[in-house]
Design a protein that fits this description.
single chain, about 150 residues, alpha+beta, 4-stranded antiparallel β-sheet, 1 helix, 4 strands
């Protein structure tokens, strides 16, 4: 409680005012007015309506609570969507990687099949080449024998 003395210039009266801090409960404000003429005036009591701390400030706190709730909700939703986006992105990267591995394996299979075919063809060609050499040798022998027989007959 504060006490303060105040002299008004018009009436030359001393006024003693008792102020009560109204933060947490509903209180009354007392004003005691005494004049210098020793004549007491009536004591004035003023009841402060709707001046309690909660009644004065609850809309402010409710609005702040709503704002905080909305911001927390936004942060949570953005975090969830970010995680979901990252997981979907990772899944798509994994699928692309698996697709690339599959395509590489198919290409490797095709290459291995081609290599096997080339080996088979080259072995067959070498076999054919051997056969041709052998037939050429046989043909030369036969020609030589025919030539020898032809020379021996004359």
């Amino acid at each position: 409680m504060k006490e303060r003395g105040k002299v008004t210039p018009n009436t030359k009266r001393t006024v003693k005012i008792m102020e009560i801090n109204d933060l947490f409960d509903e209180t009354t404000e007392k004003n005691e007015i005494k004049t210098t003429d020793k004549v007491e005036q009536k004591e004035i009591r003023v009841k402060l309506k709707n001046k309690t701390w909660w009644k004065r400030n609850h809309y402010f706190f409710l609005s702040w609570c709503a704002i905080l709730f909305i911001t927390v909700l936004i942060f949570i939703l953005s975090s969830v969507t970010h995680r979901r986006y990252n997981s979907l992105h990772e899944i798509s990267i994994q699928k692309e990687y698996q697709k690339k591995l599959y395509e590489d394996s198919i290409q490797n299979n095709k290459d291995s099949i081609k290599n096997e075919q080339i080996k088979l063809i080259s072995s067959e060609v070498s076999d054919i080449d051997k056969i041709i050499r052998e037939t050429n040798k046989i043909i030369r022998r036969v020609e030589k024998q025919i030539k020898d027989i032809g020379e021996n007959d004359f």
